[in-house]
Design goal:
By secondary structure, the chain is α/β, with parallel strands linked by helices. The protein is 32% helix and 25% strand.
Amino acid sequence: MPEKTLYVTDLDGTLLNRKDRVSAWSLETLNRLVREGLPLTYATARSQHSASVVTAGLELAMPVVVYNGSFLAKGSLKDREILSLNRFTPEQTGIVAQVMRACGVSPLVYAFTGSPVETVSWVAGTENDGLRYYFSQRPGDPRFVCLPSAERLYEGDIFYYTCIGPREELEPVYEAMRGRKGFRCTLQQELYRPEYFCEIMPAETSKAGAIQKLCRMMGFTRIVSFGDAVNDEPMFSISDVSCAVENAVPSLRAMATHIIPSNEEDGVARWLAENAGKEL
């Protein structure tokens, strides 16, 4: 049987430029390739709502991987269907809440609370510069819920936590959660910004896990991926071909089979235009 290849790209720092958009040239090139039959999707730490804004005009037909692999979803935001979702157990939620209180950190909590659309909740008065910037980049986002106190912060079907702030404030959370059974925790600096993001997910959540599910669903036997950051390392580890953009972190560049032009130079679209469909 001939191999069937899935092409997967990260968004921020990889496909998106410094303006958090896909360039006009990349849009035209990728849409042409997709219309010609290229099975292209993206895997991002963003939500489906946020990703749909920054990829406006990109004509993808494949399901997408969002929230670092928490969701595998298809369809438009209006008619979307969640194909897979990883959640925390009530016991795990209790552990995270205890760690947050002990470290004096108040997170963004991502959960389903009785609505088909997830909520992103936080406690009023805990906003810092990083969190205010995060909100400013997502005006009118219907997921946001500001709570008057922490009493109901950990309610609902929770699947993700994000803490935004200075590294020194988030490191205690990271040290308390990394390596803990049942959890996956990452700490990395925000692109083009001084603040750090500490993100906590169920242990089975990763871009790699969601991509493998998609491959099983649709019969793909080969993976070509594109990335720039540490959260792309699991994706690279399962890829047959892995392309790090020139601006990628050193650890990802060391894993890559190819180094391609940066996100400011349309590296992903240029590589696909020249190489998609060819055996390497």
